[in-house]
Amino acid sequence: MKTIKTLKQNILKSALFILLLHITIIAGARTSTVGIIPAKPSSFTAVRNSNNINRVVLKWSTETETNLSHFIVERSSDGINFSDAALVFAYGNTTSKSDYVFADNISKIQSEAIYYRISSIGADGKTRQSDIQVIHTGR
Question: CB–CB of 123/69 below 8 Å?
């Protein structure tokens, strides 16, 4: 008899847990930030490293972040067709300024100019792109 009573109590506890979980998910969906466009970097610079001419140092900042997943550093030799150079994880959710840095090795790049941009990727997959920065290689 005691086993049946314990079994009923466990079933009721499980049912209550599932109900509360369902209510939490529904409430979260109503207040979620799905659809927010990711933060565009508030500043973005690309500079040749003075100690190593084969490195370009990219720095960018965001003022706030809401459900931001990561950044894709993109590189191009013509300013039109970009390819991924790096993935940098974002802090995600913050109301404070966040700073990011990436050093790109350009020793094997033969073009006279390199164009960079940063794509912000939200947790929901939405993207937003920075302005473009140009580095003249002198090659």
Answer: yes
Are 75 and 26 found together in one domain? no
Amino acid of residue 109: I
Same domain, 16 and 80: no
Reference 85, options 59, 61, 117; nearest CA is 117
Task: Please report the pLDDT score of residue 8 as a whole number.
Answer: 53
For residues 60 and 91, membership in a common domain is answered with yes
Q: Comparing C-alpha atoms, which of 120, 139, 96 is closest to residue 37?
A: 120
Rounded to whole angstroms, the Cα distance separating 79 from 81 reads 6
Question: How do strand 127-129 and strand 113-122 relate by DSSP bridges?
Answer: antiparallel
* Type and span of the H or E element at 69: strand 68-76
For residue 52, the model assigns a pLDDT of 84
Q: What is the pTM of this model?
A: 0.71
Residue 39 sits at φ, ψ, to 5 deg, of -65, 130
**37 is a domain residue:** no
Residue 104 in domain: yes
pLDDT tens digits, residue range 52-108? 889 999 999 999 998 999 999 999 999 999 999 999 999 988 889 999 999 999 999
